[in-house]
What we know:
Elements (H helix, E strand, L loop, with lengths): L4 H9 L7 H16 L3 H34 L3 H49 L3 H6 L2 H13 L3 H27 L1 H7 L7 H34 L1 H6 L3 H53 L5 H22 L1 H20 L22 E10 L2 E11 L4 E5 L6 H8 L7 E6 L2 E2 L5 H5 L2 E5 L9 H5 L8 H10 L26 H15 L3 E5 L7 H15 L3 E5 L11 E6 L2 E6 L1 H7 L2 H17 L3
Parallel strand pairs: 3-8, 3-9, 6-7, 7-8
Antiparallel strand pairs: 1-2, 1-4, 4-5, 9-10
Amino acid sequence: xxxxxxxxxxxQDAPAAAPNRDHDRMLARWxxxxxxxxxxxxxxxxxxxxxxxxxxxxxxxxxxxxxxxDVIVAxxxxxLTWVALAVAGVFVIRGATSLVHKPLMTYLAExxxxxxxxxxxAHLMGLDQAFFHGHPxxxxxxxxxxxxxxxxxxxxxxxxxxxxxxxxxVALLAVALWIDWQWTLIAAIGTPLIVLxxxxxxxxxxxxxxxxxxxxxxxxxxxxxxxxGVHTIQRSGLEARESQRFEGSVARFIAASVRTRIxxxxxxxxxxxxxxxxxxxxxxxGGGQIIDGTRTAGEFMSFFTAFALMxxxxxxxxxxxxxxxxxxxxxxxxxxLLQIRPSVTQPAPPLAPLPQPGQRTIRFEAVRxxxxxxxxxxxxxxxxxxxxxxxxxxPSGAGKSTVFTLLTRLADPQSGQITIGGHDIRRMDxxxxxxxxxxxxxxxxxxxxxLRDNILLDAQGVSDARLxxxxxxxxxxxxxxxxxxxxxxxxxxRGSALSGGQRQRVxxxxxxxxxxxxxxxxxxxxxxxxxxxxxxxxxxxxxxxGRTTLVIAHRLSTVRRADKIVVMDKGxxxxxxxxxxxxxxxxxxxxLHELQFHARSVADTPP
Length: 607
């Protein structure tokens, strides 16, 4: 059954909800079990090294007291030597541990993010057509790249702060308590005052962080639309309009990003304020003790150093809540996408057999299909006989392309069934079913690889003789000498280095090598000039020989020779027969034919 798009939308919007501790724990557990746990030995090693790195801050603050009291005040030469060596040792240990744990955490971050991107892409490629109707390419690119990369801060900022900075704080706090526990309590006196404000700022950062990611996705989608339609934009003089639309998306992203930073900076500012208050109070109280001789200057400087060194890691740790909330927003969106289940799935055993030669007649039986509750096919039924050419014609929106969508199981009908050789295609192995078809569409997908790679896409390992035969049959050999590197010429993104006719001939060569028994032609010549159309049509005729062929065409001149023409209107079959019979009937087909013939006659009349 075709999935209702509503759950998809709900899943997409769910991350915008207020933070929930149980939900956040679930996300953290999912991240750990699915992506991080396999790197546990590396994580443990990096954590130990970061802890050693952090603990050196405590050692450094301890060395300040003998440096002041024994070296500077008492003038002990031997103390100068060992203090200098100890300080040097602290920095050597910090440098050595940093040299190892920073690359380790970078490797861990990139490995987790890369694996998540791979899994997300594989999952998205398995979803059905309804999902992609509701999720523009730019948005999905931002999800795969932007949201998953946003998780890298967990490993480059959050975990180092928890390991290194937290240990630094503990070590420095231990030094401060050892020197004077009263000074330590005075320094921390304002901490309870910032708990509630920080909790409020956490919620703000989570909320606006989600908005920032959504605005980034919107901007990515705008760019995708602009670059795909740049020629239309230029011809129509829409540059200013599209620039304004993009600027609006960028402005929303900037506003959300600034609010996110304000929330994070607010937490830092609160921590700074508490630290400043504590320092002022300790300075007043401790300074009095130094004046009356109950404490030494070395003790105070050691405490002050511990307090000052604690300041920066404390700021980073206090900012963790904002960083964590922003990372959770990205994690939530990735997780929501991975929870979407395709409506088209591999059937459970026992499977229906794949049709063999002599068993490949295609039947649609009372098929109903709707997208977002809008009927597309209504009790649609027709038969395409094996080895014959069946054409689907009708006005735009009649449902012709949906026939191909359902036949290749990019979606499933809500009711009725589609059979090949008498077996419901929903009971066949999904990969095996799709292997029965070769598709040549109006704009067949080419990839930014070599011409050879694009032609051999479905048929790796074919012989040079078979490849040469396919190139000749598809008339690719006619333009091959014009390319700088022949078959090894890169065709550019979406085949942009080739003309429309050349791209179609490449698609036909690919279909010839695929050698599937059923051929689907979707407006394969509609966008070509007369010469290119003639070459492509000749190649299609050779491709269709001996195959069951279904053709979608707006130009009726291309389907005159079809064995059967199925006329569709508003998702229903209204007529069928060959060209001559349908013209003689004087129905919908004859009317469409007359309209096109009249339009051509007017276009060909000299001014």
